[in-house]
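Hi P.,

Sorry for the delay on this. The queue was packed all week, but I finally got your sequence through. Input first:
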Amino acid sequence: SIWATCQNADPCKAHDIQPSASLNALQLIVDEWAHASEALHLSELIHDVASRTPIGTQLKLPSITGESNTLHYRGLGRLSCIADEPALIFELICVALLTGNIPVIRYLPSAWRKALQNEVIEINTSPDLSQVDGILCQRKNIASNPAKPLCPIIRPLEYRKWPLFHLVSEYTITSNTAA
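Then the structure:
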């Protein structure tokens, strides 16, 4: 398998991805590459996911003994992106990046490389699905074994809305302020 990140990306900081960093790069690709029929949908998708992503959200939680508790969200990790058409692959890359995840794709079209040079993307010609944290799927048929699931298969809901909380994990930071 081949591990590749785009030119200036730092894979060690994958969980520190901020959606606003990816937003401009993704919109640039839509503006330059997408056909008119796809561009409107992709622009709407990018802005919908960016506005609903829990990444960057901090919620103060109640404390019992005076400590400070804060709930945060981060991406699940590596998400294999499976689709049959370039526009659908791009949609999956958008969803993965804007939710703080690393998209795992088989190829990256050259037309997208410059815009995505600062993003963390894994290019792997034969990904091992047992080694990813989830699968973003826009394919009608995908082989899976329900008795031995490798990882969650995540598909869009009605009206092509993505279930973003399925793409993140939560963690809490507690600070003892009483000491």
